[in-house]
């Protein structure tokens, strides 16, 4: 069955790459952008740029209105109770660092932070470094064979010293959903805060932060077909009140004197300096675009393509899949073949996939691997892309074996 993507032509980047002979299968690293996002970027700059929240003039007012409209859209997208619960950051990584500094005073020496064994460095290293600064213990929740956190072991490891859980919703290597509701409930029973890394999860389906019951939820715009340099941090009202300020500068103060300052509450108190204005506005256009698509058709297309990808990989000898991916990506190694050599040959044939440790070095180490090749899909991919990939893969493996 052929699987054309009805949305492919909405993405000039995909068409440009195709014209260059490139097959883009690295959307989990960053996604291509629809025309609507390019239009929004050009529209903002073309109409006259202005800073937000500080000028009364017309362009300033217009920019502020468009910027704040995105806050409303992100809140609606995640089902946050209020737009003021959305803090714009420069990406998911900055949001985790914001949290690791902003929550520092919550911890006493000997307290514990629990992460999964599958965390991206972005949701691991800020906590690891916080643990080192404050004498905390970083507890690693083990995974089952499919890559999901083992809930029985998690229940044993999450205890009265656990002050915070930091868990990715969807692993960027293993492609499986974590049992977040259960984990958050385990943490809550011990009074622990929960941080959800939605960098990959937010791209697939809609997620309701209130239903999840998490304290914080983080994502980057660029993986969700939006511009780079922008991220969002959702916080429950109570959790945001516990967050200390971490970056200081313009627009985040209520009042300031030479020896004294008072800071604003969320969201502006956590958005020091000029924010990525064009990016935030274009993130709004991204959500408008995605919101206008038939969500069931998108997830159906992604699921069918993913099944085809998994079937193609499992039909080939010597390919070992990492975990049991449920959505949009597959990481694999090939017996007797170095992942960098394979990626090199695929690159030579115009196939854009990712190889290496995927910013999850501890996970790869725990699997006894130096790296893996990852194919990841976006809503613009179709089965022609997969055919090109498999043709290139077969040729590469013939050479390497
Ligand atoms: C699961 C996960 N978390 C966090 C990040 C970090 O996102 P960013 O580099 O946009 O800050 C990534 C990026 O690959 C990711 O896949």
UniProtKB/TrEMBL annotation:
It catalyses: (sulfur carrier)-H + L-cysteine = (sulfur carrier)-SH + L-alanine. It comes from the Bacteria. Coiled coil: none annotated. The keyword Transferase applies. InterPro entries: Aminotrans_V_dom (IPR000192), Aminotrans_V_PyrdxlP_BS (IPR020578), Cys_dSase_SufS (IPR010970), PyrdxlP-dep_Trfase (IPR015424), PyrdxlP-dep_Trfase_major (IPR015421), PyrdxlP-dep_Trfase_small (IPR015422). Its cofactor is pyridoxal 5'-phosphate. It is an enzyme of class 2 (transferase). The keyword Transferase applies. Its EC number is 2.8.1.7. Keywords: Pyridoxal phosphate, Transferase. Residues 23-389 form the Aminotransferase class V domain. PANTHER family: CYSTEINE DESULFURASE, CYSTEINE DESULFURASE 1, CHLOROPLASTIC. Belongs to the class-V pyridoxal-phosphate-dependent aminotransferase family. Csd subfamily. This is cysteine desulfurase. It comes from Pseudomonas benzenivorans. The lineage of its organism: Bacteria, Pseudomonadati, Pseudomonadota, Gammaproteobacteria, Pseudomonadales.
